[in-house]
Amino acid sequence: MACGPFLDRASGILRVADGKKISGAAGLAKSVLDGIREMATKRRPHPGMYEPTRPAKRLKSLAEHLASITEVFVADGAADEQLAGRMLLANGTRGTSNQSLPNLRLVARDKPHSARRLLQRTLPKDPFINIMMSTLIWARGSLTKLVQYSAHFREKFRLNQLRFSRGAVVKDLSYAAQRFDSTARPLGRMIDHFDAFLQTAMDIMNERAPSKKEHQSANRALTILDTETMLQLGMVADACEIVVRLIRFVDNERFEIAELPHHIDALRTSATELFQNEGCLTLDGFTKQMVTLIRRPRLVTLSGGRPKTLGDTDGPHQDIVARCLGRMVNWWRLAEAVLETEFPESDLLVQFQAFRVPRNLVIDSQTRDQLLRLSANFGLDPGQVLSEYEDWCPLATQFARQIASATASDVSLQAWQRTVKHVGKKA
Asked: What SS3 string covers the chain?
């Protein structure tokens, strides 16, 4: 992503490198520098291109310019990728042949990938949750994947929804391993259409012989389900829901940076209230919905015609509730550690709140501290920053009020864009 002199933003792909040919942090850092040099090479041959009549020519001044205007390095949270970014800092040239990005200020993690790790790296660590989720969703041949990838079973699921569900009918459980909500959405649909899900499993067993994988997968799903598993499913679904809110916020490349710490705090508050304070049992959500389902026992048939009752009219026993809540409290402890690791710069990002407009035109001590910290981090003259902010903030606030009356999105960004353009014209 690039930002122009008037804060107008543009994004695109400058170079695609073959990851199979790159190894380690040094290789990744070198690939970034090679990409800049290739972008600054005139008539550089590439697949599908006619062979040029004249040899390629490297434009050294353009390569130096591209390197000098690069200020932020964003990569996945993998250790070698983060190390590659730090190697490209002016004081971190180890392994890059003393080449660097001279004005690189910040090495950050890709936010959607970082937020997704709150589920990816935590839920499988609990043995009970891992077995439950693998049997129902994650594993190859799970009941969720049977419904997802078989047109015949999808049709069975649809017909069972018409029979049992009062709400909208969904086509499938919407599982997609590459998507960030690949756990949250199937869980939510499974709970919303729980009776249809159970009946589909029994239909699969009735249609397929006991020796078939489909029969065995459906039987495993019904076997693992009981009062404790049902309650745990509801709690895991609530956990996924609050994490997905953060993922959806950061998944937009135009998200307001200053708002990120507030969304992180909202996640912390929600997790604490739901699991440590046991709010998931009383607040509207998937856990409360599952408790209602538990209190309506239903009969299912396992392989070989064995009957099994799911649910209890008295609801889940207190021991079961304690065990399920204990697992979720432990999940949040681990997820919070991942959160602190994946979002280490959140304390810096909160300083951008100084640019939220409209605002009080008086530069209070908090705003002053925010501007001073940003100046120190980006190597700017603090006196000039404070002076320009004092001159420009009233104008940005005026533009923000005009924009807010017409639209509710990107108010601060649009206001500062207009401010910079206005000041540029006067200069």
From this structure: CEECCCCCEECCCCCCCCHHHCCHHHHHHHHHHHHHHHHCEECCCCCCCCCCCCCCEECHHHHHHHHHCCCEEEECCCHHHHHHHHHCCCCCCCCCCCCCCCCCCEEEECHHHHHHHHHHCCHHHCHHHHHHHHHHHHCCCCHHHHHHHCHHHHHHHHHHHHHHCCCCCCCCCCCCCCCCCCCHHHHHHHHHCHHHHHHHHHHHHHHCCCCCHHHHHHHHHHHHCCHHHHHHHHHHHHHHHHHHHHHHHHCCCCCCHHHHHHHHHHHHHHHHHHHHCCHHHCCCCHHHHHHHHHCCCEEEECHHHCEEEECCCCCCCHHHHHHHHHHHHHHHHHHHHHHHHHCCCHHHHHHHHHHCCCCCCCCCHHHHHHHHHHHHHCCCCHHHHHHHHHHHHHHHHHHHHHHHCCCCCCHHHHHHHHHHHHHHHHC
- What is the per-residue pLDDT across 226-267, written as a single tens digit (0 to 9) for each? 999 999 999 999 999 999 999 888 887 667 776 787 888 899
Q: Do both 177 and 317 map to the same domain?
A: yes
Segments forming the whole domain that contains residue 407: 348-426
pLDDT at 212: 96
Q: What is the pLDDT of residues 194-204, one digit of tens each?
A: 999 999 999 99
What total of structural domains would you count in the chain?
Answer: 3
* Whether residue 327 sits in one domain with residue 356: no
- Average pLDDT score over residue span 86-99: 67
Distance CA 207, CA 194 (A): 20
Q: Are 147 and 154 in contact (CB under 8 A)?
A: yes
- Domain end residue (candidates: 321, 342, 363): 342
36-45, 176-185, 320-329, 367-376 — most confident range: 320-329
The reply to whether 314 and 328 lie within a common domain is yes
Q: How far apart are CA 240 and CA 186, in angstroms?
A: 11
